[in-house]
Write a structure and sequence with these properties.
- The protein has 2 domains: 239 residues, Alpha-Beta Barrel (TIM Barrel), CATH 3.20.20; 70 residues.
- It contains 15 helices and 10 strands.
- Helix 3 links the parallel strand 5 and strand 6.
- Helix 1 packs across helix 2, helix 2 packs across helix 3 and helix 13 packs across helix 15.
- The longest helix is centred in the last third of the chain and has 19 residues.
- It is globular and about 50 Å long.
- 45% of the residues are buried.
- It binds iron/sulfur cluster (2 copies).
- One iron/sulfur cluster (SF4) binds next to helix 11.
């Protein structure tokens, strides 16, 4: 494992990070074993979020007594100062720490988000206050919208940008990453497996390792997966013509048929929560069905409000057949809900 300086934070972090979502579905003992294995194998950067259920608590428990050995990032969706302050305090308590290295505004995609964050009484005020008090060390931001991500980096308010990056979703490479490097903003690659659509770890990391200053944060749900992924980082990185052909194959196969979570389609005039609903299949594959159904119930029940008006079709830059895909996701949810109904309160 190599270690790199993470942008203007000056923090030294492992070239491979740890994404905290899959910890949700692990028992706390198993989560602790996976986290400690990752640390023993060299991973020092851990990313979680206030919304990832008990992920923060599991990270806090795993690294209790060795806080200074790891770099911890979390994030919040709150756009108001009071809500952000509450989430930071909650994150500190769950993580069992008195400081969080990087606290990120979670998924800033729309102008309305940004206006709320920067308005008087907005979340930015709370982040700056928390930084002044030493509760957080650096402020970062995450987005799925390329245009917004570029705009956010150009504000020079942030120490890091987290954006999707994998061999299918390469849009960030030519503009966002260039601008971030120019401004010494740390780059985190979320969704290294394209939100679960890539099932070939070998070529996934061959691609990512071609960009050594971009820190991928894959989720890990077992010691075996930790060992497998770290093994890629212990080899010379050689990408063969066959690997490139395989990447092209995935691009062609998935090209128009998966949601990138850019949120251009929202809001739906009928209240359908399109983006999270389009992720249901991925969520269901990452969590146990009982957790996935419970976690997604409000989102998936909003799909019933779809009238098929087609307004979202005009807004999706990827030309996804959104109403048809929503129906397929809902059918899977409904099937799992019926199977799990005894377990759901
Ligand atoms: S087709 Fe359905 S999801 Fe799309 S905008 Fe219309 S009601 Fe909303
Ligand atoms: S359905 Fe299309 S527009 Fe909506 S979030 Fe997904 S990729 Fe973006």
């Amino acid at each position: 494992m190599r270690y790199v300086i993470f942008g203007k934070t000056g923090l030294t972090v492992s070239e491979l990070g740890f994404g905290g979502i899959p910890l949700i579905r692990l028992h706390k003992d198993s989560a602790g074993e996976v986290l400690r294995r990752a640390y023993e194998r060299g991973i020092t950067f851990y990313d979680t979020a206030n919304m990832y259920l008990d992920s923060e608590e599991k990270i806090g428990a795993a690294f209790s007594g060795m806080r200074d050995k790891v770099v911890i990032a979390s994030k919040s969706l709150r756009r108001d100062a009071a809500g952000m302050t509450g989430h930071i305090e909650e994150s500190l308590r769950r993580l069992k720490t008195d400081y969080i290295d990087l606290y990120q505004l979670h998924q800033v995609a729309k102008e309305s988000d940004w206006n709320a964050i920067t308005a008087p009484g907005g979340a930015m005020e709370a982040l700056l206050t928390a930084r002044d008090k030493g509760n957080i060390r650096y402020i970062g931001v995450t987005s799925h919208s390329l245009a917004m991500a570029v705009k956010l980096v150009k504000t020079d308010l942030f120490s890091s940008i987290q954006f999707p990056f994998n061999f299918i979703e390469i849009a960030a490479k030519d503009e966002l990453h260039v601008i971030a490097r120019e401004r010494n903003v740390g780059i985190l690659a979320m969704k290294p497996f394209a939100g679960g659509m890539i099932d070939n770890a070998d070529i996934t990391f061959k691609f990512l390792r071609q960009h050594p200053d971009v820190i991928p944060i894959p989720g890990f749900d077992s010691i075996a997966v930790v060992d497998q992924v770290i093994s890629f980082y212990e080899q010379e990185n050689v990408t063969t013509p066959k690997d490139l052909d395989l990447m092209d194959h995935y691009r062609n196969e998935l090209g128009k048929q998966f949601c990138r979570r850019c949120e251009y389609c929202q809001p739906c005039p009928n209240g359908v929560l399109i983006t999270p609903a389009m992720a249901y299949r991925v969520i269901a594959s990452r969590m146990s069905p009982a957790v996935a159904v419970k976690f997604s119930r409000p989102v998936m029940e909003s799909v019933l409000q779809c009238t098929g008006c087609g307004e979202c079709l005009e807004k999706c830059p990827y030309e996804l057949p959104i109403p048809d895909m929503l129906k397929a996701h809902y059918d899977l949810y409904e099937q799992q809900r019926k199977e799990m109904q005894d377990l759901i309160p």
